[in-house]
Amino acid sequence: MEMSEEIYANAKGTADDRADYSDSENSYEDVYANEDNLETQRTGSFKQSDHSGFNTERGRCYRLTAVCVLLLCVFLLTAITVLWIKFTNLNTQIDQLQTSYNNVTIKRDHLQTTYTNLTIERDQLQTSYNILTIERDQLQTSYNNLTTERDQLQTSYNNLTIERDQLQTSYNTMTIERDQLQTSYNTMTIERDQLQTSYNTMTTERDQLQTSSNTLTTERDQCRNMMAGVLVKQGWRFFNSKLYYIPTEEKSWTESRQDCRERGADLVIINSNKKWEFIIKHLGDKNRAWIGLSDRVTEGEWKWVDGTELKSGTGYWYGGEPNNQHNNEDCAEIWTFSDKKAWNDRPCSEKQWWICEINIF
Ligand SMILES: [Ca+2]
Ligand SMILES: [Ca+2]
Ligand SMILES: [Ca+2]
To answer: Which PANTHER family match (predicted)?
Structure first.
């Protein structure tokens, strides 16, 4: 019994020593050493007590059992050590996984936050995209309108350019015409000044002539009055600014007219009722006298000696006259009929009195 306790004590000591995992081989040597010691002690014990062979066999069983137990312990220690190492590794891995999990969780949360933010930004971008699309459409519409307006403005610009060119041409033409007019104006101004000078000169001359005319008119009137006085003294009769004379001899129509012209007069022209009445009154008892009326140039066209025509149906013809008797009566006379004095056509060659008329006023 004491030997078994020692064996267990050594085994325990060996087990304690083997707590240090790195000295396992030395522990085995210690076991064998203790076994040798036990052998020595058993030898000593066998020497001390002389037991039988049965006890020897049982000791061997004990030692074999102890070895087996020892080997089992070593195996268990090794297994525990291995398990411990694996456990430690597992803990380490678990810590690492926990750390990774935490990191992944943080990353996931971060990604979630990022995703949320991106979703918000996407929505905002979508809204902005929609707004931009609307604005783009509006801008497109505005662009189209502006394009149309630009085309219209281009057309207007082209038209205005054409009109401007036309106006420029007109302006150039008008400028040339203006210059020509300016030249004409200058020329006319010079001419006007010359005309003004001429006008002033002529006005002066006119005034001088007017003075001379007045003087001459006065002298003429004096001469006319003197002439009228002389003619009246010679037998002429004054009536309505004219003088009339009836010679005392008898001549043909042509000779009669020639006589009047020699006196500065001509045969009388009877163109008013008052003159006709004056002539009849002063004709006296002379029953025939030539007047300045004839149709010698064209038969039937009676003209006065000043060239004026006697209108058909006028005059103081006696009834049935002028009759152009024998187709030879081309000169007019004043003839005294039974009831009155009137005109008659008579051959121009007949000799009779005549009446001269002169206008000295
Ligand atoms: Ca006649
Ligand atoms: Ca005739
Ligand atoms: Ca007649």
So the answer is: MANNOSE, PHOSPHOLIPASE, LECTIN RECEPTOR RELATED
pLDDT at 10 > cutoff 90:
no
Distance in angstroms (rounded) separating the CA atoms of residues 87 and 85: 5
Work out the average pLDDT over 19-42. 46
Q: Using an 8 Å Cβ cutoff, are 335 and 342 in contact?
A: yes
DSSP 8-state class, residue 186:
H
What is the whole-number distance in angstroms between the Cα of residue 328 and the centre of ligand 2? 5
Please name the amino acid found at residue 88: T
User: 327: phi > 0 → left, psi -120 to 50 → alpha, else beta; which?
Assistant: left
User: Which of the ligands is closest to the CA of residue 322?
Assistant: 3
Which H or E run includes 356? strand 356-358
- pLDDT confidence of residue 51: 54
Sheet order of strands, 356-358 included: 237-239, 242-245, 356-358, 266-267
Q: Ligand 3 mean position to 321 CA, how many Å?
A: 6
Q: What is the CB neighbour count within 10 angstroms for residue 66?
A: 19
Using CA atoms, how far residue 101 sits from 94, 96, 97, in Å, is 10, 8, 6
SS3 call for 304: strand
Distance of CA 24 to the CA centre of its chain: 115
What span, in angstroms and rounded, lies between the C-alpha atoms of 345 and 322?
5
d(CA 267, CA 256): 8
Distance (Å) of CA 247 to CA 188, 265, 344: 63, 13, 20
> Is the model's pLDDT at 12 over the cut of 60?
no
At 26 the pLDDT is: 46
CB atoms inside a 10 Å sphere around CB 319 = 6
Give distance in angstroms: CA of 347 to centre of ligand 2.
9
Cα distance between residue 31 and residue 340, in whole Å: 219
